[in-house]
Amino acid sequence: MAQMPNAVPQLKEWVEDLLSQRPYSECAWMELSKGRWEARLPKDVAMRPPSEGEDMPLESPTPKQGDEKKRKRVPSSLDSEKKKPNKRLARKAKEKEDNSELVAQVRTTLPRTEEVVEKALTGTCEPERGATALPQAREVERETGADTSRAEGGAPRDELREIDLTGSPQISDAMIARPVRQRLEQIRQLQAQVDAIQTEAEEFKKNMDLTTSQKEAVQAQLASAEAQLRAAKEKTSVQAKRIEELRSGLNSAISSQESLATELEAAKSDVVVANTKADAKVAQFKVDVEAIQAYANSMVDHARWEARRESIEGVYAQGFDILAKIENAKVEEAGARKLPFPEKGSESLTESEGREDPDDEDAAPDEDRAT
Question: How far is CA 239 from CA 99, 225, 246, 281, in A?
């Protein structure tokens, strides 16, 4: 069915064309009424006059204009593909139902046609029953209508030849039996084709059901994928906004970092200048400290020498005072020795002399110290 997508619609149109066509027996008797019959028969076949019980058609042997149009309308694969309607997919279910009904109708009518044709074949063996077999076959063909074959309806005219039957007295039984056998064989072939097409239609229906289920599953997957894609788009939009915010923050941080770097460079230059100034101040302070220390040392030395000088001067002054006292004491002693004293007085003088001696001893070291 995948390779023949238009098989069922073509079969439907074909059966409708066959139903619209005129039965074969009626056309044959119409040709016989004119005296000419297109068949593969020898030229010496005599035309049998119709019996009293046979119905001779009074219609013209020429086909009607509607029949000609219907016969000319043979479906082709290219035309069907070109004229394929746009809403065919929407009408597939309806066409399937129509095709199934048509196939069921053909399958029910074919066995009846076969039985009637077999009876007609058995009846054609007897000459007296040949006249009644053809009307019965014509009635069956009128009832069924679907037993006519497409190959016979569209058979090329060049394969058949016109035979003059005006001089023939009667038609043989083989003349009647051959088309009926051919019709029976064609009906069997048509039934086999219908069975094959029905199996293909069932397989196509199963495939359509499977395709429908797969389509529903794919649609569900597509819906879930669309939902996931929508969620992913929303997530990506949120992430893009977050990235933009982070990028703006990063740019501000970079600009602040650059400003901090410039400030750091300025601070470094200020620190270098301050370091140079501090070094200069430290050097000057060291020089000042050294000068102050030298001045302090000189002041200490000066104070020390001043104190020593003052102490020495005091010692000298004290030494001079002692010498003056010693000299006075000596003068007084000499004067006292010259005066007359009693014994008691002499003892007191000796005691005073004894007392003055330690003073002299003490003055001597002082003089030594002063020197």
Answer: 58, 20, 10, 60
Identify the weakest region by mean pLDDT among 41-50, 193-202, 318-327: 41-50
Which of 176, 171, 163, 181 is closest to 40 using CA atoms? Answer: 163
Distance CA 49, CA 163 (A): 16
| Max CA distance (Å), the chain | 243
* pLDDT tens-digit series, residues 230-245: 999 999 999 999 999 9
Cβ 164 vs Cβ 36: under 8 Å: yes
DSSP state letters, 138-159: HHHHHHH---S-HHHHT--GGG
Kindly state the average pLDDT of the residues 117-122: 51
Residue 163 pairs in a beta bridge with: 37
pTM (two decimals): 0.26
Q: Check: CB of residue 110 under 8 Å from CB of residue 187.
A: yes
The larger pLDDT score, comparing residue 359 to residue 219, is at 219
Confidence of residue 31 (pLDDT cuts 50, 70, 90): low
The rounded distance, in Å, linking the Cα atoms of 337 and 195 is 195
Residue spans of the domains in the chain: they are: 7-228, 303-370
The answer to whether the CB of 356 falls within 8 A of the CB of 329 is yes
Sign of CA dihedral 96, 98, 101, 103: negative
Convert the pLDDT of each residue in 57-92 to its tens digit. 444 444 444 444 444 444 444 444 444 445 555 565
Contact 239, 245 (CB under 8 A): no
Tell me the C-alpha distance between 127 and 114, whole Å. 22
Q: How far apart are CA 3 and CA 77, in angstroms?
A: 12
- The two structure tokens encoding residue 57: 């058609």
Structure tokens at 165: 């039957």
Concatenating the DSSP letter of every residue in 243-281 gives HHHHHHHHHHHHHHHHHHHHHHHHHHHHHHHHHHHHHHH
